[in-house]
Copine-3
Amino acid sequence: MTSVHESTLQYTGTGIVLLQFAFTNLLVTKWTIKANTFTTFRADRRAAAAEEGRALRPRPPQLDSDTSAQLTANAIETFSSRFAMASFVPQGPKPTDCVTKVALSVSCQNLLDKDHFSKSDPLCVLLLNTSGPHWCEVGRTEKIMNCLDPAFSKTFVIDYYFEVVQKLRFELYDIDSDNCNLQEADFLGELECTLGQIVSSKKLMRPLVMKDKRPAGKGSITIFAEERTDSRVVEFEVAARKLDKKDFFGKSDPFLEFYKQTGTGWQLAHRTEVVKNNLNPTWKPFRIPLQSLCGGDVEKPIKVDCFDHNNSGSHEIIGCFETNLAHIQQASATYAAEFDCINKKKKEKKKGYKNSGVIIVKKCSIVKEYTFLDFIMGGCQINFTIAIDFTGSNGDPRLPNSLHYINPQGYNEYLSAIWAVGNVIQDYDSDKMFPAFGFGAQIPPRMQVSHEFPINFNPSNPFCAGIEGVIQAYQQCLPQVKLYGPTNFSPIINHVAQFGKQAVHQQTASNYFVLLIITDGVITDMDETRSAIVNASSLPMSIIIVGVGGADFTAMEFLDGDDGILRSATGQAAMRDIVQFVPFRQFQNAPQEMLTQSVLAEIPGQVTSFFNTMKLKPPHGDTPVSDPPASAPPSDLSS
């Protein structure tokens, strides 16, 4: 009998092949299935490009067919078989469609205190069990300083499948290092459960345990589940005036917390950044999902707390107010809405008390937030560029211990990484023409070191026809160059960023650029690379770094801004996190599709966050949802 979570599929070719299709490994398969439905859009894109006068990218000169076949036959056969599970679309029973999206909010109580002179600085990591002992990181919350009872404002949004057992693990860490490296962090406890358990209870409370299953002190975790059926978000621009002075040697360091009313009390929906030493602060514009703020009901009460931030973690309340979204919209329609910030204790003690400052909502508008599929199916092109490390630390390509050594089966770690990523992402590029570059090698004819050379040695046309073309060019390039050094990333990042700068002026979400860097070593131009990434963070661009070999990749983890804000050497902060680092060897004994899943996991979110922030619509998408009419608020909620 076929189990609920596993189907046995048979098909005939040269013989009968038995395939075990596990639903818990569906991410890459799901991408491939959906990508196949996009083929009907490609002809439309070409026609649209012709109408707009946009030239399609030129194709490279065709290689001799016999040479190409001889060079790549083994490699293509090897990788095709390795990724059969990732690209196979079964006939008959199909993988289940996503039932819905679920947002998970996390808070903890009584965490272990690992710091001697302060409290723990907790961060929560969510992992999803993909198959057997293999877990894939879904995301991380923000780090909260000096707090044993944290309420994290960042939520995890994941797909929920009713008939699939989706195993989750929540891990808590005390983060003390600047780069938020988990290897250097103190473990505070974990919880393993299923998504079904959380969804069925809506609010799951469990004790935390250590790795050996001993209790993690008195620590516990609370997880709230909320179905995400509304794609609208609320855009806010908020300031304050004449807040109370709370610091003895300074003013106040204010931040805001927005709360949604639930059946069990107030639930945190958003926390702003801290504005240092300012009684008249202006916070950065921010967005809150409409469902997270008020469940889609503009008449539902919301609460806003204003705190003075203290490094000790004991933040002082400045004041608060309650209102609803309808009232904010109505009040801010013609001018900024103002709300008295009330400190209840001061109001009770002080006669003639008026307020502890005024919170000013300059903008409050409800807009549709487009999804990744909205952009892709609406005509957005994902432009994929590959950069390969040809530095001397890889070893002599002629020797088996070299990372560039191609074994008789046509395989090495570089080729595996190229195939894993390109095999999926090529379905999102209409002409399947990929520019591929190398760096860190001496190249012909003068054998000078280059950190940005096309691997087909054609600077005017560096494009390769499909992933097979990239493999051909790589194999032809390898014997012609001399591996050298150093390992500089900034030239190739700046090269792709030039195209991003041109695209940033587009009127719609037409183009997004993804740079895949495959490297074996430590970056030698770290300051320049940091600056290049910070500059690129304001462009429609993402960077994937795959580390091959066994080198120390601590610097790569630093560039991956999952745990904090990356800054340039001069202190300039990145607008958003655009780097994803994946160490290849962590996946050597795992199913091949897991590498693809981990490498591409952050791309959809990075694409949508950029275009939604820049208010760019899909080229062929619908118009944004307009603000719903705001009815008059109840009198007891007005400020």
In short: The longest strand covers residues 215-228. The chain has three domains: 101-227, 232-368, 383-614. The CA atoms of residues 340 and 358 lie 5 Å apart. The chain has 16 helices and 28 strands.
